[in-house]
Structure prediction request, 262 residues.
Amino acid sequence: MTDEPHWPDIASRVRSETFVRHVERHDEIGSTNDRALDLAAEHDLPMPALVMTARQTAGRGRAANVWRSGPGALTFSLVIERPATLPAERTPILSLLAGLAARRAVAALAPGREVKVKWPNDVYLDGRKVCGILAEVPSPASGRIVIGIGINANNSLDDAPDEVRRRAVSMREATGRPIDVGELLVAALINLEEELSYAARAGELPVERWLPHCLLDGRAVCLRTPRGEVTGRCVGVASTGELLLETATGRRSYTTGEVIRF
Ligand code: BTN
Prediction:
């Protein structure tokens, strides 16, 4: 059984301790990303805007996957203004940075555990997925980006399909301790602000900060791309966010794709 977090306190911490200027909290919603995409069209809304929910019934993942948020999960989406230094083609950098920010928040509440990022932006705790991120562009003209983050915090994966249970874990299951979701959310938002301001200044991914946390570095991986599957050894990421693979035909870089084996 999961104790329900005290959401009004969490909302007030978000307002006072982070860069978020609009907070919306739902008991239940289809997808926080869908709501955030609608909010992104509201020109007068103070930014960044946060949508969080206790229950999400139609969560969406990357590659048209379904995202499950059982009771106790931390589920939220943030609408931000796109930094001028990161035009539309550089959106993958924002998505990798969101992974780095979430990784740091998870690591802070799971001391002594191995917490890694799996390109492009999954967070892995002790070798299993603990957090998924879906970054979406509402309409290029809006100049805004939606970053949706789902963290398996206090939820149980017992009811999830076998294949999900094999490769995913919640923080509570891994650490054996209840997780303070307010603390986790505030940490993720503070880290996100820090990463975004770095990216806004530099216009690129801080590879030297990302690489030490790369789950795939040095491993043989299989990447599913829109043009078929590719295998190779991961040799890092580029400052533009592409995955770098040493393949049988030389070094290649990939902007999109899903690592299906590693
Ligand atoms: C993935 O790993 O495939 C990405 C999962 C992203 C899930 C989050 S939960 C909050 C936000 N709302 C959604 O519908 N999806 C994202």
